[in-house]
Design goal:
The chain is an all-beta fold. It has strands spanning 4-6, 12-15, 19-23, 41-49, 54-60, 64-71, 73-78, 83-87, 90-95, 100-105, 112-119, 129-134, 142-145, 161-167, 172-174, 182-194, 197-200, 204-208, 214-229. Strands 1, 13, 14, 15, 16, 17, 18 and 19 form an 8-stranded antiparallel sheet that branches.
Length: 230
């Protein structure tokens, strides 16, 4: 495969009085056959939800749904009996499997921002499951997702790994992924350069393996996600 660049400004955009959402791939009424996902990575939505508003109860099936909280808080309720609050720095992994109904409401006093990620499972028909953890970012990459739940990461039903890192100005982060995988880099905040390409908030970059390189953070630093996809 070749490199795939998704500039922030070219993402699909949905705006309501309570929701500002940027879609890296086709979502809802936004449909482009050229942007249906990247391997098993089906959705990256960068959502800002107004205080007191959110998504009411709605169903999902056969999808691994991952929420990375960036700012604020989000209240989650589901048909499995969970009633949880996600706060900045926490990650939720929900396996929709044979079917789940849930709501996501911002009960806080300020807008919240999150990245919601959908990953296709390795097969249909898994039992629904819910996992949630706070993550304190360590130097370098902190694992958020791992198929076996290693090193404190959340397990999902797909051989996909996800890391997050915050790099200071000029700091380098190695972009090493397995030789049988593909990579996707998503900038949450800040700026940097990878594979000779400048990147800023909201940009995404897909790349093949092996492609040994690093991300160098710009003057404002960089907060980024790195996916290893199979």
């Amino acid at each position: 495969m070749t490199f795939v660049f998704r500039p922030a400004a070219e993402r699909f955009h949905s705006q309501l009085d309570w929701l500002d959402s940027w879609h890296s791939f086709s979502f809802s009424h936004h449909h482009d056959p050229a942007w249906m996902g990247f391997g098993p990575l089906r959705v990256i939505n960068d959502d800002t939800i107004a205080a007191g508003r959110g998504f009411g109860m709605h169903p999902h099936r056969d999808m691994e749904i991952v929420t990375v909280m960036v700012d604020g808080q989000l209240n989650h309720q589901d048909s499995m009996g969970h009633s949880e609050v996600l706060r900045a720095g926490e990650v939720q992994a929900m396996s929709a499997g044979t079917g789940v109904v849930h709501s996501e409401m911002n009960r806080g006093a300020i807008p919240c921002r999150l990245l919601q990620i959908w990953i296709e499972p390795d097969r249909a028909g898994h039992p629904p499951a819910y996992r949630q953890e706070p993550f304190v970012l360590r130097p370098g990459w902190t694992p958020l997702l791992d198929p076996d739940g290693r090193d404190g990461a959340l397990a999902i039903n797909r051989p996909v790994r996800l890391w997050r890192a915050r790099a200071g100005a000029g700091e380098r982060l190695e972009l090493a992924i397995a030789s049988d995988a593909t990579g996707w880099l998503q900038v949450i905040e800040g700026e940097g350069t990878a594979f000779g390409r400048p990147l800023q908030r909201g940009d995404g970059l897909g790349f093949p393996a092996p492609s040994p390189d690093s991300l160098q953070a710009g003057p404002a630093g960089a907060d980024v996600l790195l996916f290893e996809l199979r």
